[in-house]
Amino acid sequence: MIPKSHPRYESLMLRQKIAEGVEKGIVHITGLIAHGRGEAFDYLIGEKSQHFATEAAKAAASYIKIAKHPVISVNGNVAALVADEIVKLAETTKAKIEVNLFHRSEERIKKIIRLLEEKGGKNILGLEGDARIPGLEHDRAICSYEGIYSADVVLVPLEDGDRCEALKKMGKIVLTVDLNPLSRTARNADVTIVDNVTRAIPHIRGFYTEIEKPEEVIKRWDNRKNLQDALDFICERLRKIYKEGC
Ligand code: PTJ
């Protein structure tokens, strides 16, 4: 057991959830590497939701609010870390949930659907795999016709760069959560929340209920500028850590 007083308690708990996710067959083995990369970037942003992250969560909530057919895509890491928050977000926004895996396996999809159902999720898509994202090869293209294929707005946390580009080419609004502001997904999405998915998903839900004029938020939204703000913050923080050792 990790004591709550441990300075890195939150981060260690997330690490434990990912490790347990691998043991239970929910997280793909490469999800460990993805998580480690995320941890490093989380350290660089101070393991807190900074101003650029909350602004992006507000923009994401606004896009979901004006969407006709919003879909939340869930992979192994997201399920292991925030299954309960994903279900709450879907309930609040009336978005559909689709389990869509980079390393697709029916067995893992079934396990993730079961986990989401245990948290209260209903009508979770993913197993049918009855449509394909054009421009992608092999199983990575498979999606649900009723879900991602027909969506106008897709929230795809921790997404692969090729798939983000392919979704954009389909004309979709792509919202992502990625701790790395330099990743291809981060740079190609319409909204990139540079934050830990564990903090970003509850923020989107909070803003969804608060925002009254989503069109105005969207009109002002500039993803490139927001990513630049994230990078400026990281550079500044690194200089500070080096000088002051904090
Ligand atoms: O379950 P599957 O088969 O769909 O596979 C999921 C993973 C995550 C393994 C797969 O999509 C993958 O390999 O992703 P990448 O290409 O490693 O990208 C993951 C991105 O998410 C990286 O830029 C990480 O920095 C970032 N990331 C990792 N953990 C978090 C995160 N961003 C936000 N919150 C996190 N907890």
CATH top level label: Alpha Beta
CATH-defined architecture: 3-Layer(aba) Sandwich
The biggest sheet amounts to:
5 strands, parallel
Mean pLDDT: 96
Spatial ordering of strands, largest sheet: 2-1-5-6-7
Head-to-tail CA distance between termini? 27 Å
Low-confidence stretches: none
CATH fold label: Rossmann fold
What is the string of helix and strand elements? HHHEHEHEEEHEHEHHH
Beta-strand content estimate: 5-15%
Return the structural class. alpha/beta
Helix content: 40-55%
What is the overall shape? globular
What is the rounded Rg? 17 Å
CATH superfamily: Phosphopantoate/pantothenate synthetase
Count of DSSP-assigned helices: 10
Number of domains: 1
Per DSSP E runs of 2 or more residues, the count of β-strands stands at: 7
Care to describe what's here?
- The protein is of the alpha/beta class and 246 residues long.
- It has one domain: 3-Layer(aba) Sandwich (Rossmann fold).
- 54% of the residues lie in helices and 10% in strands.
- The protein contains 10 helices and 7 strands.
- The protein has helices at residues 9-23, 30-44, 51-66, 76-93, 106-118, 161-169, 184-188, 197-210, 214-220, 223-244, and strands at residues 70-74, 96-99, 131-132, 142-143, 153-155, 173-177, 191-193.
- The strands form 2 sheets. The chain has a 5-stranded parallel sheet, with helices on both faces. Strands 3-4 form a two-stranded antiparallel sheet.
- The protein is globular, with a radius of gyration of 17 Å.
- The model has no long low-confidence stretch (mean pLDDT 96).
- Bound molecules: ligand PTJ.
